[in-house]
Amino acid sequence: MNARTAEPTGASATGLVKIEQPHARVEGVPFQADWFDAVDVNLSAAERRTATLGARRSVKKEWQAAWLVKAIQCIDLTTLAGDDTPGRVERLCAKARHPLRDDLVEALGLTGRRLTTGAVCVYPTMVRTAVKALEGTGIPVASVATGFPAGLTPFAQRLEEIRYAVGEGAQEIDIVITRAHALTGDWQALYDEISLMREACGDAHMKAILATGELKTLTNVYRASMVAMMAGSDFIKTSTGMEGVNATLPVSLVMVRAIRDFLERTGQRVGFKPAGGIRAAKDALAWLILMKEELGRDWLEPDMFRFGASALLSDIERQLEHFVTGRYSSTDRHGMA
Q1: In a domain, 16, yes or no
Q2: Which of left, alpha, beta for 2 (phi over 0: left; psi -120 to 50: alpha)?
Q3: 6 in a structural domain
Q4: pLDDT digits over 193-251, tens only?
Q5: pLDDT for 23-55, tens place per residue?
Q6: CATH of the domain at 79
Q7: Is residue 245 one of the residues assigned to a domain?
Q8: Catalytic site residue 60?
Q9: Which domain holds residue 240?
Q10: Options 76, 95, 174, 292, the catalytic residue
Q11: Which of 112, 159, 176, 288 is least enclosed by beta carbons within 10 angstroms?
Q12: Which string of DSSP letters, residue by residue, matches 101-162?
C-alpha cells in the first residue's frame, strides 16, 4: 500500500498479502530514565497532526475495500463481558474464522484465500474454550490478565493469573499496568512490574495496556510507552476499553512515535494496539493511515498492529456489502454472535 491508495489496485485482490510470522520477541533494555525525562509532548501539535489524517487522505471504492479487508486481518475480536458463556465465545471464534459472508467473499475475489481476524481476545477462564474452537486455524487466542481492567489486585495474584492463562493455551497476554506508578512518576517501579509480568508470560507475547485515558497527559503516555518497551512489551496498547476515554488518534500518535524512537535506539520492533471505542470502518481507515505514515508498511500486518474491537467488524462488513451491492443493509444483518 502507499499512503494515498491501497495495493493491489483491484477490488478482486483487496490488498491481501502474505502475512508474516509473529515478529521476534522484544528483549527490552535496562531501565534508562534519560530516554524520556526531557520529553514534553505538545497536545495542540498532536491534535493538529492527527486532524489531517482524514482530510489529506481520500481512500475510495476498490481501494477502500482493500484497506477494510486489511483492517479485518488486524482485529483482535473481543468479548470481555461479565455474562460471557462458552457458547458466546464459540460463536465469536466462528466469526473470527469466517469474518465475511460467502457471497461477499466471492464478490470481492477472495474465494480460496485465507481471511481471518488477527486473534480472539477473552478472559482467562474462557481461553480453553477459544483454543478448542480455533484449533487448526492458526488464529491466536489472547487473554487479558493481571486484574483487568483496574489492575489493583495483589501483585502475586496478577502474576498467577498470567501463568493460568498461558497454561490454558493463551498465546498472547494483555496485561494492565498500575496507573499510580505513572501518575506519581515512579517509572522504575513501573519498569520492574512490567518486567516481572513479561517473565510470567513465558513464550506468550505480551501486550501492555497503558489505560491512557487515566494517565492525564500525553507526556505521561510517552513515558509509560517507553518504560513498557524497555521492560520487554511486545505490543503497547492504548486502553482496556472500559475507561472514560479510550483510544484516540492523538494518544496513538504519541505511542507510535515512542515505538519509532525505541526502534531507532534499540533496533527492536514493538507492535501497537488501539482499543476501546473503535466501532466505525472510517475510524479503522484513519488508524491504518496513521500506522502507514508514521511507522511504515511493516506495521500494517497483524504481527505488528491490532485493533481491540468487536463492533468494528460488523461495520466493516456492512461497508463492504455496500461496495459490492451499492446498498446499505440493516445493521441487524451483521450481528457478531
Answers
A1: no
A2: beta
A3: no
A4: 999 999 999 999 999 999 999 999 999 999 999 999 999 999 999 999 999 999 999 99
A5: 689 999 999 999 999 999 999 999 999 998 876
A6: 3.20.20.70
A7: yes
A8: no
A9: 33-334
A10: 174
A11: 112
A12: -HHHHHHTT-TTS----SEEEE-GGGHHHHHHHTTTT-PPEEEE-SSTTT--S-HHHHHHHH
